[in-house]
Amino acid sequence: MMEIWSMTDVGLVRKENQDAFATMQHEASGRTIGVVCDGMGGAAGGQVASRLAIDVYIQEVTAHLQPDMTPEQLREVSSYAVSVANRAIWEAAESNPDYRGMGTTLVSAISYEGGVVVTNVGDSRAYHITSSGITRITRDHSLVERMVERGDITEEEARRHPNRNLITRALGPDMSALSDGYIHPMASGEFLLLCSDGLVDTVTDQEMLFEVIHGGELSTCMDRLLAIAKSHGASDNVTAVLMQKR
Question: What is the pLDDT of residues 97-133, one digit of tens each?
Fold first, then answer.
């Protein structure tokens, strides 16, 4: 089990919050689950896609979790749950013209005794935070990530790039969208941060690191990160889940 803190906010510009998140302690298996989604596609579509992804993912994961699963098996369970969520969003869009083309990112974590299994699609991220630094676990499925990998732009330039919101993979629009899975060790006292790009684009990695490790009480950490995001404009919805390994 892990300690959990979370927040979501519409930000300073958007009229609706198309982000969604869920956290839970799965008592039967001793796992902690966290998931963040960032929806897209019209006034209603984004909200529908992100909420549907959350609900289906949690439903499928909890239906298949067993106490003695290896990290590799947990990664398979998570990948399967993402694929079921993907189909659910695609089918909902096909059956309702108002939802046509809707989609969502997803980043999730399932704890195991030695760390977490992380799954992602799109540009919502997972960070590992310790007293010695902050490390991004996930790789964005986005246009600017490809540009960074090619050396065309820097990570800092990517945060401000006009095409930073163009993602190359999402749940919903593509029936064959694949997720990436990571088995990431964690020691007692260390943190995992799941977040939408609304946080990433407004709060630097070093600011995240400082607030989690040195900023004060963990109970107010989410409020402090949101305040920083808003001080930098918060043009998008801002959502984050912070998990600490016991």
Answer: 999 999 999 999 999 999 999 999 999 999 999 999 9
Domain 2-245, classified CATH 1.10.10.410, yes or no: no
Sign of CA dihedral 155, 178, 187, 195: positive
For residue range 218-227, what is the model confidence (pLDDT) as tens digits? 999 999 999 9
Q: What are the tens digits of pLDDT across the range 22-44?
A: 999 999 999 999 999 999 986 67
Tell me the pLDDT tens digit for each residue of 136-146: 999 999 988 89
Query: How many C-alpha atoms does 231 have within 13 Å on its Cβ side?
Result: 9
Cβ distance 223 to 2 under 8 Å?
no
Nearest alpha carbon to residue 46 among 207, 184, 165: 165
